Amino acid sequence: MKVVILGAGNVASHLTRALLESTVHVAQIYNRTLEKAEAIAKPYNLAYTDKISEIQKADLYIISTSDEAIEEVSYHIPFDDTLVVHTAGSLGIDSLKGDYRKGVLYPLQTFSTDKAVRYEKVPFFIETENEEDFKKLEKLMLKVSEKVQKITSEQRATLHLSAVFVCNFVNYLYTIGEKVIEEAGLPFETLVPLIDETCQKIHEITPKQAQTGPAKREDQVIIEKHLAMLKNKNDWFQIYQLMTQGIVKQQNEL
Amino acid sequence: MKVVILGAGNVASHLTRALLESTVHVAQIYNRTLEKAEAIAKPYNLAYTDKISEIQKADLYIISTSDEAIEEVSYHIPFDDTLVVHTAGSLGIDSLKGDYRKGVLYPLQTFSTDKAVRYEKVPFFIETENEEDFKKLEKLMLKVSEKVQKITSEQRATLHLSAVFVCNFVNYLYTIGEKVIEEAGLPFETLVPLIDETCQKIHEITPKQAQTGPAKREDQVIIEKHLAMLKNKNDWFQIYQLMTQGIVKQQNEL
Q1: What is the per-residue pLDDT across A36-56, written as a single tens digit (0 to 9) for each?
Q2: CB atoms B205 and A112 under 8 Å
Q3: A142-181 burial, b if ≥16 CB within 10 A, otherwise e?
Q4: Contact list, A216 vs chain B (CB under 8 Å)
Q5: Rg of the Cα trace of chain A?
Q6: Per the CB < 8 Å rule, is A166 touching B174?
Q7: Which residues, in sequence order, are bridge partners of residue A48?
């Protein structure tokens, strides 16, 4: 199976690496900015181009551009007898504009440039127009990951939303924690064992069982003390209040 | 050094185990509910009591009750020539009411009943009235953990606040993620590799570098889509909006 990757962001570069490490034949990288395509392609001696008319004939095109660019890029793929997928969490299969066969290949993971990822642990969610293409993609992705699964567009959108809460928003809380602790003259590293354990716990017990802290105990004295410390930090004050209310409410649910 | 533990909650039970595993001499558990003291003491054949007048003479008393009970319990310790510490994040040393020497021993960790903890990775923060007691406590706790550090009351309060953000609130986001993903008919376990990687990333790059997602990309189409999905979930809608605003603002900071 010959694969062409379109896009050169974090998902595209990690996906390229994941496929190559699994000895999948990635033939070419396309990106509208040539330097970015080159940056991904060069280390592996892959072909690369910034002209979509010059993309090679392949069995599978994976579009990992920004969400806004997917439609435009998909429209210009100059082949019909092929399979084209995008990797976006919240776009339907109908974002792909062409007469080829269509699908979605959604990796549930957070990819940053300078952080290696164990791809075999990344769940891949597949949606296709027909069963044959699902089987093909499933077979391909099982070379990369232990977890490959069929999913509907609606499930994928919900999955993406849940991922925003447990990944993007969690990371944002880390950035707040970092700024708060630095005010005490302590480095962010001080918090890392606590962050690790918070994550480790939900491997063994449910998130609700794992909940601790002043909000869970409805410890109003500490909550008021914390809110007073945040009185000049409007955003953090609001987040503290909202999350505390949510935890209290959750404790009181049946 | 002979130690008596007062309290029988999560912190008390984990601290007792941590000290015993490090061959520290824990002599007795006190708790106002006898059954709870027994539950901790029995497996190790320790003495236990629900009468504070019956606590043994010891070199160190560790009060790990609820924050509200610390003052009351500390008041009734019937010895002066000894060291008494509490383990609360946000209470001053002056919450201890007695003529003994005073201190605070704050473990920066989230303790749940059914989850084992690697105590050698738990940072312990110590505050005492005099250097001699600091040295004693430091020596003792270095048997348990690799990380033992002096800290002021003010630093400890700030540390506790940052811990609420990166632990308690993070865990609350896990509970939201669980409920959202279950609406798609998928188990919470689906999110665990993503949760792991989100936590792993900040071992190698800063939280700001690790940020990904629609808010970071200022992807209004996806953000509006997500908010529409949350329109009947008032609390989650507000959290989504607030966190998204925060991430956007942070991206635009110098």
Answers
A1: 999 999 999 999 999 999 999
A2: yes
A3: ebbbebbbebeeebbbbbbbbbbbbbbbbbbbbbbbbbbb
A4: 168
A5: 22
A6: yes
A7: A29
